[in-house]
Amino acid sequence: MDSALIYQKLLEELESGHRAALITTLAESEGQSTIVRKVISSRDLIWEDQDLALRAALEGGLVRGEFFFEQGNGPNEAGILLEPFFPEAQLIVLGGGHIAVPLVEFGAKVGFKVTVVDDRPLFANNFRFPAAHQVICESFAKSFESLNLNKAAFVVIVTRGHRYDKVCLENVLKYETAYVGMIGSRRRVAGLKELLISEGQDPLLLEQVCTPIGLEIGAVTPEEIAISILAQVIQYKRKGDKATRKSNNWPELDLAVLSELAKADQGPRALVTVVATKGSVPRREGAKMVVWSDGRTLGSIGGGCSEGEAIRVAYDVIRDGRFRYLDIDMTGQVAEDEGMVCGGVMKVLVART
What we know:
This protein has helices spanning 3-15, 52-64, 100-109, 140-143, 165-172, 186-198, 203-207, 222-239, 255-261, 304-320, 332-337; strands spanning 20-29, 32-41, 68-70, 79-85, 90-94, 113-118, 134-137, 153-157, 179-182, 269-278, 288-292, 297-299, 324-329, 345-352. It has eleven helices and 14 strands. It is elongated and about 70 Å long. By secondary structure, it is an alpha/beta fold. The protein has two domains: 3-86 and 251-352, no CATH class; 90-239, 3-Layer(aba) Sandwich (Rossmann fold).
């Protein structure tokens, strides 16, 4: 399948709220490179149909967000790469009060696609929340018809005076989300949980709700409370839920790069991908950069002189079509000479698209 079509399919899966894995098989024979890419979606995956090694890699990628790379030694086995892709992380803020204002601002700054819901026009408008991707002015009960809640959704319930906590929590628990947190005192939250259990709600689902919400940092002001909430959300995004043993390792996602790769006939170009890291590095596995023969670039693998070296290698790849691996050393004297504050090593793959 054409490379652009592969990335189009990948984007379609992500936009539909599904996780996906991009499997790239690399081979080299008699000076010629062969690259085969395939997208596997979480929605049509049948575990029993996979061999054990692929099944383990897919489970690690689609369930836990683990990146898999293996470099072969033989001339016809140059490497295999499995990259997990999760839908863009959403921060859903139910309530447009004083805590929501800094929470939306900070959430957008750290990469969340933020949606705010409130039933009051004065509290649900783009002027109040300029950083939000979407502002919904609707009753909380009806708003769930417009929300796309899925495993990429991190939901924060901060309704005014707790008046709509019950209706929000009842509706949120109908979906499998990455995180649910609700503001309120322990006594009030305990009373609400008891009420919901008496009405037939699953106690195990209620136990997964983070209440009191946020990390315990002694927060007092709206801004401090927003930081404590967002810190907990990020903790769930990066480290998972220890209580339920769910683990997340949210992969790198640069939608601008993926969108560019999904375009056909964009001229000679190469894709630089971080495939392995060790120690402290500026970008994680999966970070990408597109390089064109005319010197243009899109995306980043960390900047600095090391990125410049990858760009130079990309020109060679564009010229002869052969993929290459590049080891970027950020330790010891090398890092000091280049003014780096890292201390690790990155391996990158440079290949034509």
